[in-house]
Design goal:
The complex is a heterodimer of chains A (75) and B (23).
Chain A lengths: L1 H9 L7 H10 L4 H22 L10 H11 L1
Chain B lengths: L1 H21 L1
Classes of the chains: A mainly alpha (75), B mainly alpha (23).
Chain lengths: 75, 23
């Protein structure tokens, strides 16, 4: 988690992601499914942002797997 | 607990990779 915080500090445009990290850290001991949901939302948010920057069209109800596939394909 | 930790840490690693690679 520290590594991710460090990366986000380096690149301020990703700063909104700290909300998810805070939530994951908050829930990881007490409510794992919430921590997991937030981890998924974190990944989704990064993948969405990458697709947006590469002007890749993303369907509204796309699955996380497909979305990540699209984000990786941008590279 | 170990599996849970693994799940979260691997997710975070992918996040770090995506951001670093993108930047």
């Amino acid at each position: 988690m520290d590594k991710l915080r460090q990366v986000i500090e380096e690149y301020p445009r990703w700063q909104d992601l700290t909300v998810y990290i805070d939530r994951i850290e908050l829930f990881i001991e007490s409510d794992f499914s919430s921590a997991q949901e937030n981890a998924k939302a974190l990944l989704e948010s990064i993948a969405q942002e990458i697709c947006k920057q590469f002007t890749i069209e993303v369907e509204k109800n796309i699955s996380i797997n497909k979305l990540l596939g699209k984000a990786f394909n941008c590279f | 607990k170990t599996e849970q930790e693994f799940l979260i840490s691997s997710t975070v690693t992918v996040c770090v990779f995506l951001i670093r690679y993108h930047e």
